[in-house]
Amino acid sequence: MQSTSVRIDRATHQELKRLASDIGATVGETVALAVRRLRQERIGQDLAAALTPSEADWLDADLG
Q: What are the sequence ranges of the domains in the chain?
């Protein structure tokens, strides 16, 4: 697996290590989980947003 470095402040790094330890994961796995969670949260916000007029028109379209 290829890897790269991400610069974060010391306090964030310590918190990340603590979280990783708490869940029994590596720091890299914990970052991957956090990124996935953030992506899921944003998808949820998008789904909860009001429909645009064109989306509502499409959903209300007569398909017959």
A: 10-60
Per-residue model confidence as pLDDT tens digits over 13-37: 999 999 999 999 999 999 999 999 9
Tokens (6 digits) for 21: 């330890």
Contact partners, residue 16, CB within 8 Å, separation at least 6: 8, 27, 30, 31
Backbone angles phi, psi at 14, to 5 degrees: -65, -40
pLDDT at residue number 49: 95
Identify whether the C-beta of residue 20 lies closer than 8 Å to the C-beta of residue 27: yes
Q: Are the CB atoms for 32 and 21 separated by under 8 Å?
A: no
Report whether 17 contacts 27 (CB < 8 A): yes
Residues comprising the chain, all counted: 64
